[in-house]
Amino acid sequence: MPAQLLSIEVAPDLVDQVYRALLGAISSGALAPGERLTQEDIAARLAVSRQPVLQALRLLKKDGFVQDAPGRGVLVAPLEAEAMRKVYQVRGALDVLAARLAAQQRFRIDAKLIERGRRAARGRNVEAMIDADVAFHQAIYAASGNPLIGQSADPHWRHLRRAMGAVLQAEPQRESLWDEHEAIADAIAAGDVERAARLSDEHVSRASDALAERLAQQLARTASASGIPTKKGDKA
C-alpha cells in the first residue's frame, strides 16, 4: 500500500520567497540589528498570509539572523565582530582548498569578473560591490571541481554579506582588494598551487581583520550614541 503523505499547507516556494525577502532586507540594513519583527507586520508589508512568514522566521532563527525578542515576536540578531572572525576562519579554509584545486586545473577566471569588481569598487553601490566579490569567489569554488566547497561556503557568505553591507554603507570598498583578486586568479591560471593557496589565505586574513575592526568601531559608535555598552569581544 502506498505510503500516506501529509498535505503541504504552505507552498515551499512562497516560504522561500519570504525568507529571501527578509534575508535581503537584513543583509542590506533595511531591517537593522535589534529591530523587532512581528508576523502581522511582515505579512502586511509583503502582502502574504502569516503562515509563510512564520515558517520563514523559523528558518531565519535557525540560521542565526533573528532571535527571540523579550515579550512577543523576534528581533534582528545583532552583528558581532568576533562572530564574523569565526565565520571568516571557516570561509578561509574553504577558499584555500578551492584555490589549490583550481590551480591544479590551471583554470582561467573570467577577466570580466575582475573588471566588474573594479568598476563596482569605484562606485557607491554597496550591493554591487558585494555581488562582485561573491561572484569572484564563487567562480573559484566552481573551478575547484568539488561542488561541496561552494555548498559549504554559501551559508557563511550569507552572514558575511550582512557584515560587509553594514561596513560598506559607511566606507567604500578598496579597489586594491581587486589587485589581490587578480593576483590569485593569475596564480591559479599559472598552475602555481602553493602561491594560489598562500595568496588566498592572506587575502581572507586581511579581509577578516579589516572587516572585524571596522565593524567593531561602527558598533562601538552606535552603542556610545545609544548609551548601550559593547560586548567585550566587540571592542576595537
- Supply the number of helical segments: 9
The residue-averaged pLDDT reads 86
What's the total number of strands? Answer: 3
Q: Please give the oligomerization state of what you see.
A: single chain
Please, could you describe this protein's structure?
This protein has about 240 residues and is mostly helical. It is about 70% helix and about 5% strand. It has nine helices and three strands, in the order H-E-H-H-E-E-H-H-H-H-H-H. A three-stranded antiparallel β-sheet has the order 1-3-2. Helix 4 runs parallel beside helix 8 and helix 5 packs antiparallel against helix 6. The protein is globular, with a radius of gyration of 20 Å. The protein starts with 11 loop residues before the first helix and ends in a 10-residue tail after the last helix.
List keywords for this structure.
disordered N terminus; single chain; 3 strands; 3% strand; three-stranded antiparallel beta sheet; 9 helices; disordered C terminus; 69% helix; 236 residues; mainly alpha
What does this entry show, briefly?
The chain has 236 residues and is mainly alpha-helical.
Summarize the topology.
Layout lengths: L11 H17 L7 E2 L1 H8 L3 H13 L3 E3 L5 E3 L4 H24 L6 H12 L3 H18 L3 H22 L7 H15 L2 H34 L10
Antiparallel strand pairs: 1-3, 2-3
